[in-house]
Write a structure and sequence with these properties.
The complex is a heterodimer of chains A (about 575) and B (about 120). Chain A is about 60% helix and about 0% strand. Chain A has about 575 residues and is mainly α. In chain A, helix 8 runs antiparallel to helix 12. The termini of chain A are far apart. Residues about 565-585 of chain A have low confidence and may be disordered. Chain B is mainly alpha-helical and about 120 residues long. Chain B is flat and about 65 Å long. Residues about 1-5 of chain B have low confidence and may be disordered. Classes of the chains: A mainly alpha (about 575), B mainly alpha (about 120). Chain A: Its main location: membrane. Chain A: It is found in: Membrane. Chain A: It is a multi-pass membrane protein.
């Protein structure tokens, strides 16, 4: 065997190593527009919802700005009475049906339910993308209706005005809401089946994150209540198009029947809006307090309690519509009943905060804002659930302030908290911490400035949906409009720094907040199938006291720990030491 | 509630043998004909009898029978396990909330509170 000897030339210059390819994740696995439009990946569908509802939020916000600007002057600044009617209706329709209802279930539910329970996807991936398309078709109908000509009935679409007298785009608007309702039903069904059937080994009902519990309760409402409003809207369309007397008293109908059927959906819809927000707050408060949630089972079951009791009190919207006194009495009592599970949540959140090792990042600031604003909104709800006071306060700005405290101060703030909390997981990038804190404070301050004056003017008798008002209300209206511009700035800032973070944000690891949920055990952004191997759950969802995630692995150092003297000795304050070793909790 | 049927082969995807125990097409056709017949009866009552005191309860009863037939035969309630049947009953209870509470309003609206 001969050995070939080769003469080497001069040493070659070292070749610089090629940069390692980025790990494959759901974002970079494919780049074509079709890969997004025909995706069945729950994470991409969540982002499709995020993009679409952001557009509807901007549209609804523009109409809100028109309404508030018009109210600067006692006789209306620039809108005619008819245009004013169309503006506040457009604001209501876009914000309620196309932003608030799909916001957290559509975006965060789609994206994080499978990640949180250790599943690869939702139970019905194709139904999931179908629900987005159905939602967009409905939004196209209603969007066209409110933008081209508008609807002047108010978002509640009460007949007989909506079925007989209104000359606006009632039919396409109602058709859009009707169609988008099917999206809501499909999303609810998908989430319910996923939670029932696709949990990872060890993920018992008692170990489900509270966000999952809240979305399960929300899905129950979506599944049961939405068909009722669908039928109601069909009846309204039939009456308007064919003149068959269902709700119009002049042709044998009953307008209060519409209100019963409409509110049988639309009051539970309030809980479709707020329950997911409560789930978000449960996740965020416990993470940034570095403490186990106080009363896990009470918080979980209070979600179900709110879902059930929420079906029993719809007629508190109709106390002065002409319903029976005895029915009003019953519904008043039932309305107060829902304060019990709501209060259970608030007290448990407060107890979670007690002696926690709190860091004030943006999600935490927003969740604390939620805690205050939702409590104020809930307590003022008791004013309206009381028969005597409701007669005075009904259809005044007090009502407007109350439901904005719950829906905007509650749901929108919680949605913002969710976006800030999970943005690093969704994108793999961290946004500006300083700007996010500033935006959070601006949002909360702007909100207070906008809606506290409305409580005062409402209590003094200013009716809602009127473009004109007595001179003495002008100062309060100016304050409210000024506050709305501050609030708008608060919403604008995340619209700037979040997209910028996609290009300039610091790359983050799997668990930037040192949180315990399964979603934080996957890379950021997650891989296409979420988990390389099916996770085995061995711990409860919030084991912050012993410092392990749901798979029993130790948590990384929490953010801000290096600045906090209480963390330097390895403790998390009063909650006890943070163990870094793996520990299995049964 | 559910009468036993001859179960087919059970698989992980079909734990109760529902899909395997194919429904008798003849039975399904008869049930479908019953549903159609009841619908025609409802229309006939509207046309022939008109709005009397008993028309609405009678028509609601016919509608309930139709819904029951659809649920029992076409929605596989007769082959459902206890959880499925419980779910169906829960949905009836939930619908009962709607009907009882707003009928409670309608039936007491004429009662005036004495001052």
């Amino acid at each position: 065997m001969s050995i070939a000897v080769t003469h080497r030339g001069p040493a070659a210059a070292p070749v610089p190593p090629e940069p390692a390819p980025a790990p494959v994740n759901y974002l970079n696995v494919s780049h074509t527009i079709w890969s997004w439009l025909f995706t069945v990946d729950h994470k991409r569908i969540g982002l499709l919802y995020l993009g679409s509802i952001s557009v509807f939020f901007v549209i609804g916000g523009i109409f809100a700005a028109l309404v508030r600007t018009n109210l600067l002057m006692p006789n209306g600044a620039f809108l005619s009475e008819d245009a004013y009617n169309r503006a506040f209706t457009a604001h209501g329709v876009m914000m309620l049906f196309f932003f608030l209802i799909p916001a957290v279930p559509g975006v965060m539910g789609n994206f994080f339910i499978p990640l949180m329970i250790g599943a690869k996807d939702l139970a019905f991936p194709k139904l999931n993308i179908a629900s987005w398309y159905v939602f967009m078709i409905g939004a196209t109908f209603s969007g066209w209706a409110v933008l081209v000509g508008g609807i002047d009935t108010g978002w509640t679409l009460y007949p007989p005005y909506s079925s007989r007298a209104s000359q606006s785009n009632v039919l396409p608007g109602v058709m859009g809401v009707f169609i988008s309702g099917f999206s809501s039903i499909m999303t609810g069904l998908n989430i319910m089946v996923t939670v029932h059937k696709m949990r990872a080994p060890g993920m018992t009902w008692g170990r489900l994150p509270l966000f999952v519990w809240s979305l399960y309760a929300t899905s129950l409402i979506q599944l049961l209540a939405t068909p009722v409003v669908a039928v109601t809207l069909v009846l309204l369309m039939v009456e308007r198009a064919a003149g068959i007397g269902i709700f119009d008293p002049s042709i044998g109908g009953d307008p209060i029947l519409f209100q019963h059927l409409f509110w049988f959906y639309s009051h539970p819809a309030v809980y479709i809006m707020i329950l997911p927000g409560m789930g978000v707050v449960s996740e965020v408060l416990t993470c940034f307090s570095r403490k186990n949630i106080f009363g896990y089972h009470a918080v979980a079951w209070s979600s179900m309690g709110i879902a059930v009791v929420g079906f029993l009190l719809w007629a508190h919207h109709m106390f002065v519509a002409g319903i029976s006194f005895y029915a009003a009495l019953l519904f008043s009592l039932l309305s107060m009943l829902v304060a019990v599970p709501s209060a259970i949540k608030v007290f448990n959140w407060t107890a979670t905060l007690y002696r926690g090792s709190i860091t004030f990042h943006a999600p935490m600031l927003l969740s604390l804002g939620f805690l205050v604003l939702f409590t104020v909104g809930g307590l003022t709800g008791l004013f309206l659930a009381t028969l005597g006071t409701d007669i005075h306060l009904h259809d005044t700005y007090f009502v407007v302030a109350h439901f904005h405290f719950v829906m905007v101060g509650g749901m929108v703030i919680a949605y913002m908290a969710a976006v800030h909390f999970w943005w690093p997981k969704m994108t793999g990038r961290m946004y500006s911490d300083w700007w996010s804190r500033v935006a959070s404070v601006i949002m909360i301050v702007g909100f207070f400035l906008t809606f506290v004056p409305q409580f005062i003017m409402g209590y003094h008798g200013m009716p809602r949906r009127y473009p004109n008002y007595p001179q003495e209300f002008q100062i309060l209206n100016v304050m409210s409009t000024a506050g709305s511009s501050v609030l708008g700035l608060g919403y604008l800032l995340p619209g700037i720094y979040l997209p910028l973070s996609l290009f300039f944000g610091k790359k983050v690891g799997a668990n930037p907040w040192s949180a315990t949920g399964l979603e934080w055990t996957t890379p950021s952004p997650p891989t296409v199938h979420n988990f390389e191997v099916t996770p085995i759950v061995v711990c409860g969802p919030y084991e912050y006291a012993i410092g392990v995630d749901q798979m029993g692995r130790g948590l990384p150092e929490p953010p801000g720990a290096q600045d906090d003297p209480s963390h330097r000795d390895g403790s998390t304050g009063p909650s006890g030491p943070m163990k870094k070793e793996t520990e299995v909790v049964g | 509630m559910s009468h036993p049927t001859t179960p087919g082969a059970t698989t992980p995807d079909d734990p109760h043998g529902i899909r395997a125990s194919a429904d008798n097409p003849g039975v399904l056709l008869v049930v479908f004909a019953c549903v159609l017949g009841l619908a025609l009866a409802n229309i006939g009552i509207s046309i022939q009898i008109g709005p009397t005191k008993f028309t609405l309860p009678l028509q609601l009863a016919i509608g309930s029978v139709q819904a029951g037939l659809v649920a029992y035969y076409f929605m596989h309630l007769r082959q459902g396990d206890k959880v499925v049947i419980l779910t169906a009953l829960s949905s009836l209870f939930w619908m009962g909330i709607l009907f009882v509470l707003f009928m409670g309003d309608y039936m007491t609206r004429h009662l005036v509170v004495s001052s």
